[in-house]
Amino acid sequence: NRAAWGMKAGGGPPRDTVRIGERKWLRWRDRIGSMLGAQEQTMTCGGVGGHLVCAVVTAPEDRRERADAVAAQILTSLQINKR
Questions:
Q1: I want to staple 61 with a disulfide (CB 3.0 to 4.6 A). Which of 32, 35, 40, 65 is the partner?
Q2: pTM of this prediction?
Q3: Cross-sheet strand order for the sheet of 51-59
């Protein structure tokens, strides 16, 4: 599935740069089939405290905004505490 996320050189869907909170994130979208019917899978990645973090959300395409809101809520709640 790495090629579907644009990880393969020259392949995969285009990525979008989005701003969530005060950070910039990269977002990839991919359409998948499932037992529940056609779905859209969205992976949003960025850096938090020097670590790469990603959130993957799956939802029907007509609920894209709702899926993006869930990913934003998860990503903005993350903190990396130094020990």
A1: 40
A2: 0.75
A3: 16-20, 23-32, 39-48, 51-59
